[in-house]
Amino acid sequence: MAKVSLLLFSLFIIVASAIINGSEAVEKVGIYELKKGDLSVKFTNWGATIVSVFLPDKYGKMGDIVLGYDSVNDYKNDTSYIGSVVGRVANRIGGAQFTLNGAHYKLIPNEGKNMLHGGPVGFSDVVWKVNKYKKDGYAPSIVFAYDSYDGEEGFPGALRVTVTYTLYPGNRLTVRMKAKALNKATPVNLAQHTYWNLGNHNSGDILSEQVQIFASHYTPVDSQLIPTGKFATVKGTPYDFLKPHTVGSRINKLENGYDINYVIDGADGKLKKAAVVKDKKSGRVMELFTNQAGVQFYTANFLKDVRGKGGYVYESHGALCLETQAFPDSVNHPNFPSVIVYPGKEYKHVMVFKFSFSS
Asked: Where is the active site (predicted)?
């Protein structure tokens, strides 16, 4: 009887969340799977989240290479944005405020006095509608949609958002994020926050994984991880991944680990290679391409005693994130590329993950 009551309560919470957060209709929260060749990816419409990515290693043994949970309810209680789409504005907004077209907007802070990843109830904590779900064919795909209401978390204007995940031959996962401002200009900066561990989600830390980031500059931050507005060269710093280095080779020179935005070289709105990750033991290789100007490199510095899939406990540096994005706190730095989307214009963000193997 207690289990039945708990289930009914959970369903009530899901329905209530959908209503409170502006969904047009009550959506059932479920798990959806796409398969193509050797690649299998599962999703949930809670936060348009990537739940698992199964891929063989160089020996042909299958493994799940992203952190996550066994239950959808665990994602509802997650505080680390594991696998989810974050927004309306990803990363940090200093002082949880900005001015646009002469109007001052006060947002809802959720990291001290600042806003992180869209606020206390960002896009990672709402129910998305499943617009399309195509399991078969040349390019299996799923489309999640969310209508963000005017004033949600303090942001101006209604916003219609879609996220499309598609599998292509050659072990490629493409993520397309689009957003339309319906009635007011508003900032938009979406990011996909998957925690990757190419050795397998339960293989320990990622300090031995080799990373290359195609960026000669980064955006320095203050003690609260808010950009100063300046640009700095990676040369001579622990942030230099222009040539491949293991994550752990210089991480001890940083206070907690990597959590910094890189300025992708040659970014011009077209698809560019942003990063490559290699895991020597498994042989897995992940190449990341994007049309965005920045990529946040994060080494899961603040994971601690997080019980994940199969009861495995995730700890600090148990994964890495490569979140392609516009620059953090762009709304407060006129010298950064603008993230403002005006009615009649469309925000488009593309990521391509290409998986392969090396000896």
From this structure: 193, 323
Choose, from 209, 323, 333, 349, the residue flagged as catalytic.
323
> What's the CATH number where 129 sits?
2.70.98.10
The rounded distance, in Å, linking the Cα atoms of 24 and 291 is 30
What whole-number percentage of the chain has pLDDT above 70?
93
Q: Examine the residue annotation and report whether 193 is marked as an active-site residue of this protein.
A: yes
Reference 259, options 106, 97, 64, 81; nearest CA is 81
Tens digits of residue pLDDT in 62-93: 999 999 999 999 999 999 999 999 999 999 99
Tell me whether residue 9 is in a domain: no
- Which residue range is the domain that position 89 belongs to? 31-203+295-357
Residue 76 region, left (φ>0) first, then alpha (ψ -120 to 50), else beta? alpha
Catalytic-residue membership of 333? no
Q: Among 24-33, 47-56, 57-66, 102-111, which is the least confidently predicted range? A: 24-33
* The total number of structural domains that make up the chain: 1
Point out the catalytic residue in the list 193, 201, 317, 349: 193
With a threshold of 0.90, does the pTM exceed it?
yes
Prior bond to 88 cis, omega within 30?
yes
pLDDT of residue 11: 38
